[in-house]
Amino acid sequence: MQFKPHAKISFQRFRIVVIISLLAILLPAGSYSQWYEKESKHFKVIYRESHSFLVGHILESGELALDRLHTLFRYTPREKIVINTYDVNDYGSASATSVPLNYIWLDLAPLEPGYENIPYSERIRWLLTHELVHVVVNDLATNAEEFARGIFSKVAPEQIEPLSIFYSILTNFSRYTPRWHQEGIAVFLETWLSGGFGRALGSFDEMYFRSLVLEGKKIPNDITLETILQHQSFLIETNYYLYGGRFAMYLAKRFGPDKLLAWYTAFPPDFYPTFTGKFKNVFGVDFDDVWDEFAEAEKAFQDENLSVLTAFPLTPYRALSSVPIGSVSQAHVHATGSVVYWGEHRPHFLAEIRRLDLRTRESRPISTLPTPSMYQVASTAFDPASDLFFYTTNNNQLYRDIYLLDVRTEKTKLLFEDCRTGHLSVSSVTHELWGIRNRRGTSILVCSRAPYDSLQELVHFDFGDEVQGLAVSPNGTTLAAVLHKANGSQSIVLVDADSLKRHQQIQYTLLTEDGSPENPSWSPDGKTLFWNAYTNGVSNIYKADIHARKVTAVSHTLRGFFRPVYLAKDSLFAFEFSTDGFIPVILPNVTAEHLPAIEYLGQHVFNKSPWLDKFAIPFSASTQSYRDTIPDEEYNGFNHLNFVSFIPVLTGFQRQKVLGIFAHISDPILNHDAIIEAGVSPFGESGRQMKFHLKLKYDYQKEYEFGLDFNGPNFYDLFNKRKQGSLGSKVRIGNTHYWVYDNPHKVKQLSEIALYTGVQFISDNIVPVSQPDFF
Asked: CA-CA distance, 768 to 726, in Å (whole number)?
């Protein structure tokens, strides 16, 4: 609708502005009961009420880790480190930042298992240890940074105001080094702070570099790592941890851990040193030269390991693919024994469920597989008696769904939506579907009977006990599972399924705990169980006679075999690791004579510097409340408002240059998020006199928005021909609502009510308006 003439609408316009402003002010006055907070000496945890049983443990873990890092780096935080807990994914993770405040985002679900890619003990303490290394290293400041922080605080980079990047570098220079450099020190310290549980002593890392040398590939330089390998490898961001951690280990071995720590320490007299310039100052040699030496030393180290392994007869095998196929799920054999199904995700292709005919070696996809995870791709199970293939979606974000695929018709059906259940296994006799559900950081054993219309929760496991890799025997009487405990041990256990269903209590028999065993699978008669383990430092296939409890090694290989599946009395199906992805293979089902053990680079570092064991944080799996805490209270965002940015800027408005101030104010969890940009254009471009410019936006919980523009500036008007800064005023209130939020599917509705005054053009200043004032 339109208002005219101008003089007669002033009161009505004023009333609308007041109403909108009052709405924006009153909206945040609602309840904050969904979030709570608790503090210790150096930490503040912001959490959901359902996470309260873990808060004391989180605070205790943070304080213990920070105490060790204080000793190593002489670091004491000037502000409380915020830890924000979530439970929004079925695989746990964490991330950290030091701008604009020291903040750790902690997802409480169990970590994604597989291949011992992350050797960890109690996962909350382990994750906090890794992330606190990032916070400490990046929050340390030189005198120059301290001076800049005194003026601007710690500035976060803003997409809408690119000049904020300059101020962010000025106030937190250490944060802007390559990702591999950032992860290198965290990987190194995560291991020793956790008493040896970490990637510096991990079998996956050894396998990767051993395979790299075996394949005749060179370790890329740091530039290639960042620009090429990261985008081509099926391991994507894992490469940063692999190469960063390995280079840190080499430095610690050659120069000593003290020099490595010094490279990551900000010394007050330094003036914005680059990481390569600082390398020369600390180690006395050029970075590029040492990286080349690292590549040569790694090749020599792995050549020695390969020499040890090849001194004994290797298991012969037959590859079923001429090229690696990326990441893979568990494989399953059809009742005929001639067809194998699995889920896969190769670089640059969509994930899919694939069918391989062993007689013709013809391989083809039979269904897509949305949202695969990094290592497991998806959780899968197959009932050969009914030709039904079960698989999960939403494996890398949000809550998992379970789908059913009929491999004969290739039609799919949704069974359970947002059920948060994986580690699937199904009996071909009882047709019962078993799985593990993740909720609030704990694991729950569930079961569903055909026709699969409900999931029954049977056993709730204590926090710290993570159950993975279920494999129910074909007749449904015995359940094999991988049990990972808070002390870091990992074992395969056997459970009487009938007793478990009757009593809803779990009692298990330990089968093996050697070499981080995983991926159990049964022979069709239920008498033999197969799995893979790093018992000699290389992942090989093992089997056990269930009645005799006799364990036998089935393979001796150089790279690593995983996910064994019974094909026939004399043959097994498995996947072989390569640095480009896994390769399906067939190997003989016979006993391997001898498995020599490899050396670990991390052990060499420890042997040279045994005092590293003093870094270890005392182990505790307790979740009891931390004693020195302030009582729980409801979280109020107003009490935690902080300047994300408060900086002078040069921006644009049409053809004019604008000198102004950019301010961003928010609380840690973005209940309140306000951006203010104000300035003047004093240079008289186009013959215009000095004009005032203002842009204000306030978001409440990223759902409601209030905005006010008066000749609103826009940085990109300095460069773009199509100007976005609009002459006149706009007052608006908006709402964002998601009708569907289930990645990759989203349906979002944006609603806005706005009042325009003095406007000449809209839609990026290309559509003229006849009426300057309208609502």
From this structure: 11
